[in-house]
């Protein structure tokens, strides 16, 4: 018996040696997992990166099975989804896992991003990890948008119609651009087919590539932690490994395993007992087949897009005046600031361009610009934050207050994006929009004057 | 640490608070207060009674083309029972609940094609359907001679009128605490009340039950596997609970030496 086990192990060792002579399997495993040293003080917020990866795998696997029965055809799509729900063995489960997974992907990514805002994970030297993360976020939004057309319900159809029409707002080329995107004068069969192609292969391919790059960049610099202290500064002279670091495997693999189980428990409650989640995850109107002749009285995107949708709707002629005032103030500041005159002229020029565009472009176009900006502005975080410390634990009250206001305005905008607009609600969305952008645009100022504490030398 | 905790608590409170303050809108109900009902997919008697009403009254103009007759096995019916009592237009039990009326004719006769009812309960919601089906009234100004409080000027006539009887609408002053309610323009507000004109074959209580069973059936038909889903869900949650404990103790065992 003992002999048998020993010879089996030799056999396995030989196999790994054979592979390692041809492919860096052990080396990759060591560098990325078993000898990747991560800070030992990860807390609750650090689960969401690995959880996002779990959801990504879930979406790909369930997506493959959905594709086996779904028909990307304007005449068949709606019924084929119901065919999956009714006739395909366990089809209802696959479909609900996929639809619940879409919302949970955003929940995980939003909390993952919030973690970065808490502990300054975007700061030097992790700027590229952050930028790749913003890329993942953009891909995820594209993926969700394309995928939402596929059930071919009323919300699918009119949501796509509204968003594609945004491109029509671009001066001169807009109309042709919108037709080029749709492949038709309205959202139709051609649109459904191309969105299907984007949803099942084009975007996932890019997404997976960026996810790999995101992880590689992270493992190059090493992970940040709730103290924002670089653990690589304190190496054990004997081993050469960080004193405050622990190997990702087995420590964080078992910890993330536990986190995944808790996550799946919450996920299962929604997928099995509240799959529509009161109309938030599956909208009621999307159970009506798409009808190009019947515009629903109330078109709202799914919850994860509503903050940006609110920004779009909040951009009226009045808000243009607010932008104009902000641009003028920016130019005054640029004029008074010390430093090279070349930089000053560039800044003044940028302000002037904004003013000219405010004059030339109507509010609708500015809505599109601001909506895009509200997403892309995250990319500038590494350079907007001027605080000497990374973690909120050692930042002063100004950043804490700013982040709180930002989170509140994000949630309020999200809520408003689901409602039928009224004068009061639009006003609220405008205040929310201003506060949302103020968090980013004023960041260089408030983070540089904020009183910070000195972080400890090592993890607490 | 405390900062993080406070942020976490604040975030959770905000998310839950804003999510359940008001749900996303369903189809509009024109200001009529809907009678809230819950549905029960385990009440087989109610589902079977609803199926009978559905086949007799709805399945002439409305199809349920995503639904096969033999799916009715799930509500406790045998193939024989389905064939003998519920199948009038088709021969094979594996066929979908389609109708003979052409959509183009229907559009001409009613002004709009009657929608397929397979997933109607998922778009409108049971409470809307329940209120809508009970609030038809006589109105000589429409082409069908019928109108509806929940869906004004709907193209659908009151198909269940022989059961409910005919009713007429009468405008009345809106009263609260014995005094009329005034509108913003200073005039008293009015409400529309339905009053019986002729008696139906069923009493109000019986008719409400008939409509409830019908809506209960529509809600079940919107997702025929819903009971399977919940049954499987319980076992999944039990399994995951075990895995949560196992993985927790595994994590604790591994982390013993981390200080």
Helices and strands, with pairings:
The complex is a heterodimer of chains A (460) and B (259).
Chain A: H1 2-20, H2 25-34, E1 37-39, H3 48-67, H4 77-86, H5 91-119, H6 127-149, H7 154-168, H8 174-182, H9 189-221, E2 245-247, H10 248-273, H11 306-314, H12 317-336, H13 341-360, H14 363-376, H15 381-384, H16 397-416, H17 423-441, H18 443-449
Antiparallel strand pairs in A: 1-2
Chain B: H1 2-21, H2 44-58, E1 64-68, H3 79-85, E2 96-97, H4 103-110, H5 120-124, H6 126-133, E3 136-138, E4 146-148, H7 161-164, E5 167-173, E6 175-176, E7 179-180, E8 190-196, H8 204-222, H9 226-255
Antiparallel strand pairs in B: 1-2, 3-4, 5-8, 6-7
Largest interface: A-B, 62 and 56 residues
Share of helix among residues of chain A? 55-70%
Give the spatial strand order of the biggest sheet of chain A: 1-2
Determine the number of helices of chain A (DSSP H or I, runs of at least 4 residues).
18
Question: What characteristic shape of chain A results from the CA principal axes?
Answer: globular
Contiguous low-pLDDT stretches of chain A (5 residues minimum) are: none
Helices and strands of chain B, in N-to-C order?
HHEHEHHHEEHEEEEHH
Run of helices and strands of chain A: HHEHHHHHHHEHHHHHHHHH
The overall pLDDT average of chain B reads 88
Q: Over the alpha carbons, how many angstroms does the gyration radius of chain B reach?
A: 25 Å
Can you tell me about this structure?
The complex is a heterodimer of chains A (460) and B (259). The longest helix of chain A is centred in the middle third of the chain and has 33 residues, at 189-221. The model of chain A has no long low-confidence stretch (mean pLDDT 95). Helices cover 67% and strands 1% of the residues of chain A. Chain A has a two-stranded antiparallel sheet with strand order 1-2. With 460 residues, chain A is mainly alpha-helical. Chain B is α+β, with helices and mostly antiparallel strands and 259 residues long. In chain B, helix 2 (44-58) crosses helix 8 (204-222) and helix 6 runs antiparallel to helix 8. Chain B has a two-stranded antiparallel ribbon with strand order 1-2. In chain B, strands 3-4 form a two-stranded antiparallel ribbon. In chain B, 45% of the residues lie in helices and 12% in strands. Chain B has nine helices and eight strands. Chain B is extended, with a radius of gyration of 25 Å. Chains A and B meet through helix 4, helix 5, helix 10 and helix 16 of A and helix 1, strand 1, helix 5 and helix 9 of B.
